[in-house]
Amino acid sequence: MLPLPVLLLALSSPTPLFVAAAADPCVVIAGKTFVHPSDALACLKSFPFNETLRQNVLTHNIARVVDFFTFEDYYLQSPPPFQDSTVNIRAALANINTTKFATDYDFNVALYDFATRLNDGHTRWFPDCYTSYQNLLPAPIVSLEVNGVQGVYVVPDLVEFVSLLGSSYTDLIGIDWQRLAGAQVISIEGRDPYAYVDFIAATVSGNYLSHNVRVNSVFSSYRLTGNAYSQRFGDFAGPTGVAQDSLTFQVILVNSTKPETVTVPYIANFLGAPFTDGPSYWANNCAANEDTNGVDFKSGTAGLESNTVKRRQPMANIVDKSTGNAIGLPSRFEPTLPTVGGDQGVIKSYILPGNKTGVMFVGSFGPNSFDGFQRDVVSAINAFKAAGVTRLLIDLTNNGGGFICLGQFLHQYLAGTRIGYPGFVSTARGNPLARKIVASDIELGLNGSFSFYTADNWAFLNGTQMPASFNYMTPDVPIVINGKLDATSQRFHDTCELSFIVPIPSNPPFDLQNVAIVSNANCASTCAMFSTLMNERHGTKIAVFGGNPREQIEFKGMAGNQVLEWKDIDSEIKTGNLKDDPLAPADLLVSGNFRHNWRTAWSFFDEKEPIAYVFELPRFRFAYTPDTYNQPQKLWQFAEEKLFA
Ligand SMILES: *[C@@H]1O[C@H](CO)[C@@H](O)[C@H](O)[C@H]1NC(C)=O
Ligand SMILES: *[C@@H]1O[C@H](CO)[C@@H](O)[C@H](O)[C@H]1NC(C)=O
Ligand SMILES: *[C@@H]1O[C@H](CO)[C@@H](O)[C@H](O)[C@H]1NC(C)=O
Ligand SMILES: *[C@@H]1O[C@H](CO)[C@@H](O)[C@H](O)[C@H]1NC(C)=O
Ligand SMILES: *[C@@H]1O[C@H](CO)[C@@H](O)[C@H](O)[C@H]1NC(C)=O
Ligand SMILES: *[C@@H]1O[C@H](CO)[C@@H](O)[C@H](O)[C@H]1NC(C)=O
């Protein structure tokens, strides 16, 4: 199946095996966790360009999935201050369709960059073949305030942090990297460090419409993933892929005053499936597998059994490839306070010294246990109440979202039932295939166990759940965006309350004046919706740390609504018996995922505006310091003093 000319030659001639092995660049890196990026790149570039695969991926799959993407027409001229995300999506696809590419890698990287630069973490192309390496530079950077002045620094905890990767990483570096710990960065690749950071934010980071939110993603930061503290390398020191071999810095080392120039190598970290050579790399990482495409939930064991019992939970999240290898926060920087109220899920809660302020670090809205998250919230609030705590500080740093209904749950629990509906007014796109799916689902008698398109997933704006047989796509509601007429569904609410398993108080457990949020604004999807609800409906105090000090920063990252993975929209189509429709996207022949933002959340401030395009500033903005960038407890104590004074 693999069209490797070198290999075919090797097989069809009596060439000794070792020559064949040396000729296959994938053999050189097989079985190794850490490799030089140029060696990995040689393997990734060994697969020739294939027009059949281009047409499968681009014309028959992605271009048809874009029909469902809620924000397509906004991109024709993204409203200020998001102008840098203006892209004519159809023209860009047509361009990639006619560009001459030497390798399959080049084609996929062009598509990956196109989708990444939409800066919508819900709408991305992940070709598994080429996202299998994360490039790691032993010099992650942060923006810190030192003696009242903000600047870019190599992370002060460099030695402890990078050493956690082990000697198979550090042995490859080949320079005395430890001396860079805490060094001030004067320039990167000959440019002002903030200008270089802006460049990475514009070209590499993706995920967030707001430029300065992306800037924080470029820097190293603490996070809570998989019930453990870890530290992101950041998009500067830990990008996906193997595009770059090294970077040249000008730095002033700690205790020095003289700038010096250093060139630091990237070392690529393999996160994909094991392989031994080019053909097995392709088979295990690049070819479509049984999980790539969707299934018909009506037939077989595909999901019928589990889905007849439970409602399917809508998701809103970004994909952070760097969590594939979550590198621990050096343990001495973790909070020293004991956790309260249970810490088995994605939330860790603490009571700050003095017993006035309770902290909930909500690392994600995507726990393993949907119900467990709700119980964790209740037990944390109960523990705070029992300790006489009167103020609540919520840390949303690097919260990439998760279950939409857990964001609405946390909002409702904190604000009480008296506020009524805890979510946003929402719509899906009413493109012709979407309308056929809804009509077909009705004809087939399906419900929310089988499809996100059936109306019983939603409620009318008066709160009454729609019957599954209701067609909310007909009549559609036309909207005009950038001069283009777009058919949209009727407006609806979520039905999250059907999934709340704990009693919700009618009044807020804490005076909402005494609830505050801190984050690095890398708060995506469900997290962005939660913090936007707290801002738009309760005027909650929100503080954002970091960013480029010369620019404003929003408190929210990607603020789309429900996201569908390629597999999800394909399952909707197959379950609705519409896979043969000429508008239906084809099954992918390669292992990959073109996910898309499938629903819009409309702002309370202006119901004609998606919250994604409402630029919302936090009430407080702080720089990180050498103490707070990687020590959450110190950040919370700082915030307690500043926000509750
Ligand atoms: C291109 O890919 C298709 C699908 O995997 C395959 O059938 C075909 O042989 C490939 N073409 C060439 C020229 O290798
Ligand atoms: C790509 O080009 C082919 C012809 O080469 C055409 O059939 C197809 O529609 C084009 N796809 C897109 C998305 O422009
Ligand atoms: C810098 O100087 C201080 C004070 O003399 C010393 O404690 C520290 O170890 C020095 N750091 C480095 C990296 O040389
Ligand atoms: C959908 O219908 C099936 C019976 O066909 C039922 O078992 C299931 O509970 C229903 N799901 C929902 C979410 O109402
Ligand atoms: C806070 O609560 C703990 C546990 O109940 C108690 O031991 C401590 O003395 C309290 N501290 C203050 C300042 O009230
Ligand atoms: C809510 O609105 C729907 C659609 O207009 C209507 O059918 C239903 O009776 C209303 N429910 C209540 C409780 O008013």
Task: Please outline what is shown here.
By secondary structure, the protein is an alpha+beta fold. Helices cover 30% and strands 18% of the residues. The protein is built from 20 helices and 27 strands.
Q: Strands, helices and their partners?
A:
Layout: H1 5-12, H2 17-23, H3 25-29, E1 34-35, H4 37-44, H5 51-65, H6 89-98, H7 104-116, E2 124-127, E3 133-136, E4 141-146, E5 149-154, H8 158-163, H9 167-170, E6 184-188, H10 193-205, H11 211-218, E7 221-225, E8 228-232, H12 234-237, E9 246-252, E10 260-265, E11 267-270, H13 278-286, H14 304-309, E12 315-317, E13 347-351, E14 357-362, H15 370-386, E15 391-395, E16 401-403, H16 404-415, E17 425-428, H17 432-444, E18 458-459, E19 477-481, E20 484-488, E21 493-494, E22 515-519, H18 526-538, E23 541-545, E24 563-564, H19 566-575, E25 592-597, E26 599-602, E27 620-622, H20 632-643
Parallel strand pairs: 14-15, 15-22, 22-23, 23-27
Antiparallel strand pairs: 1-11, 2-25, 3-11, 4-5, 6-9, 7-8, 9-10, 12-16, 13-14, 17-26, 18-21, 19-20, 24-25
Helix pairs in contact: 1-2, 5-6, 10-11, 15-16, 16-18
